[in-house]
Design a protein that fits this description.
single chain, about 600 residues, alpha+beta, Beta-Lactamase, Heat Shock Protein 90, 6-stranded mixed sheet, 5-stranded mixed sheet, about 55% helix
Length: about 600
């Protein structure tokens, strides 16, 4: 995964860099295309203007309409020179009117021949309008300095309010008189469409047109004069034409670049992942086997792993195998040391317990020997007392030895399917119905209670349906009998107080376990004993061996469960025994007491 990630990151950086360079190149190429298209449009307009001027120059040189305009201009000049009483005045006026009529009649044909929407002919001397289009016939025969100004200024375009047109001019002079001919070609959609036919892939935007989404718009200006002299003396602003070039080709090129980059990146990632997984499999496979065996170390079932190659992984495998051998040796030694320590502690404790009864036995026998040696009359009276003491202490030693033997000889659990509620009901029934003469452990407990002339404490069972569990029924009964017996003894009447109550509870502890609870309202466990409550010979009861709870804990642990003590909310002792439903994992043959499950506790 790391190698694949490195390949992915590297490929992405390379792809981003390559894409940036390719896209920048395409954008630069597109900008050049736009600039070239704008230049082509400008040159096309210039060609159209040049063609119009050339045609107009030919017209000025030989067209009869222009000749008639010169005649009219000459006649006007001659009329102005004559006095009102001159006999030639009438003839010249008639000639001037006839010439102007001929010009006005032929100006439309002249415009059609030149391909212009408007044709103006003015007298170059004073701006007298000799000919105008139909829409401006009212100004014919008047002086209009604006037309003369238009004729004299240099410019390619003419502004007419919100409209514009291309202008072409020519002048014709004969015998001291001159006329100026100006033609106008409207800059409208039809004209722009004709330009777009010449320059492919462009669109000229009129005023108010909005560019398309993928369209790049550039503008250029034409030298301009104003047809409507709104502000005299102020030059007209240059006419700006906007040219739009479609960016579809650029978007398509960028899309192709992205497609190629994505495909190349995916191939690179796939190749990197394949190589990475191949290398990782070769490296990680031994590590996986090593990790699998390492997880078994705590269970003691780890086995040496196969050593392949001579790299660092092989060195690690060699070190692991050596560690496994060392751990196995250490485990055997520790196991032996624990067994020795356990038996040493058991021997020390049982020696201590046996040493206490030996003192009164020794004292009684020595006293008997002294009385016998001096033939003391008190011998017979003391004999019964001494022998009774000796027998009592011998029984005590025998009880200690029997308890220890039973603790040492606890057999591995033989699990079978049992009903926890039935087992608890059986144990409660033993204490409620048993008689001292029945013998056995339960009978002995009841006998001890009856011999003390104590009434039987109240004992109850609260059980919830808990399902079956796998457990050794006899050992489970032994644990519950021990807990109930201790609770009954703790709740005996004392110092005038009535007997307490003992309650046995059985309930599910989640889906995987069952909980047994033995509660009493006695004095509880002495805090001084809590830290070693479940250790052998940890007892505060007079005459107790201190092995009952140790045996109970060992049985619980060997079943995979736990036993714990807690003080009740209102006093008393609460012992909880939790056993898993699946029972013990495997029989325990070791005579050393297993360690309790801290997590379960």
């Amino acid at each position: 995964m790391a190698l694949a990630a490195i390949g992915l990151i590297t490929s992405l950086f390379v792809a981003i860099g390559v894409r940036g360079a390719l896209v920048a190149e395409e954008r630069n190429r597109f900008e050049n295309r736009v600039a070239s298209a704008v230049g082509d449009v400008r040159r096309a307009i210039d060609r159209r203007v040049a063609a119009d001027r050339a045609a107009l120059d030919r017209t000025c040189a030989a067209d009869p309409i222009v000749d008639r305009a010169l005649v009219a201009a000459k006649a006007r000049a001659d009329i102005e020179k004559l006095s009102p009483s001159d006999s030639e005045l009438a003839r010249l006026e008639v000639a001037a009117v006839q010439a102007r009529a001929a010009v006005a009649a032929g100006v439309n044909a002249l415009g059609a021949a030149l391909g212009s929407e408007e044709v103006w002919i003015v007298d170059a001397r004073d701006g007298f309008v000799l000919a105008a289009p139909k829409s401006s016939r009212a100004v014919v025969g008047t002086k209009d300095p604006r037309r003369l100004k238009l004729a004299m200024e240099r410019g390619t375009a003419v502004r007419r309010g919100n409209a514009a047109a291309l202008v072409s001019r020519c002048a014709r002079e004969e015998r001291g008189e001159a006329v100026v001919v100006a033609t106008f070609r409207k800059l409208d959609r039809a004209f722009f469409d004709r330009i777009a036919e010449e320059v492919r892939g462009i669109r000229i935007l009129e005023t108010g047109d909005a560019p398309h989404r993928d369209e790049a718009v550039r503008s250029f200006t034409l030298p301009t004069v104003s047809f409507d002299d709104v502000e005299p003396g102020v030059p007209a602003a240059a006419l700006e034409l906007r040219v739009g070039v479609s960016g579809v080709a650029l978007a398509s090129a960028i899309a192709r670049i992205d497609q190629v980059i994505v495909v190349a990146t995916l191939i690179s990632i796939a190749f990197g992942a394949f190589v990475g997984f191949a290398v990782a499999r070769r490296l990680v496979s031994p590590l996986g086997a090593l990790a699998s065996e390492a997880r078994k170390v705590a269970e003691g079932t780890a086995a040496p792993v196969e050593v392949r190659g001579r790299d660092e992984v092989a060195e690690l495998a060699i070190a692991f195998n050596a560690m496994i051998e060392d751990l196995e040796t250490t485990r055997r030694r520790l196991h032996a040391a624990e067994r020795v320590a356990a038996w040493r502690e058991a021997a020390r404790r049982i020696a201590h317990e046996i040493k206490n009864p030996l003192a009164p036995i020794r004292a009684s026998i020595e006293t008997l020997r002294r009385l016998r040696a001096r033939e003391d009359p008190a011998f017979d009276g003391y004999f019964d007392e001494a022998t009774s003491t000796v027998l009592q202490e011998v029984r005590r030693v025998t009880s200690i030895v029997d308890e220890f033997s039973r603790y040492a000889r606890i057999a591995p659990p033989r699990p079978a399917e049992v009903d926890p509620v039935e087992v608890a009901r059986h144990v409660v029934g033993l204490f409620q119905n048993a008689d001292a003469s029945t013998g056995g452990e339960v009978g002995s407990a009841v006998s001890a209670i009856n011999q003390a002339n104590d009434p039987q404490p109240r004992l109850s069972l609260v059980a919830s349906p808990s399902g079956g569990i796998r457990a050794d029924r006899e050992q489970l009964v032994q644990v519950l009998v021990n807990l109930v017996k201790n609770a009954l003894e703790a709740t005996r009447p004392k110092d005038g107080k009535p007997a307490g109550h003992v309650r046995v509870e059985v309930e599910p502890a989640g889906p995987e376990a069952v909980r047994f609870v033995v509660r009493d309202d006695g004095p509880g466990v002495d805090p001084a004993v809590l830290s070693r409550l479940f250790e052998p010979y940890a007892s505060t009861k007079q005459g107790g061996t201190g092995l009952g709870l140790a045996i109970a804990q060992r049985i619980a642990v060997e079943h995979g469960g736990a036993i714990a003590y807690a003080r009740g909310p209102k006093g008393g002792a609460v012992f909880r025994l939790i056993l898993p439903r699946k029972g013990p994992k495997e029989p325990v043959s070791d005579s050393v007491t297993p360690r309790p499950n801290a997590a379960a506790t």
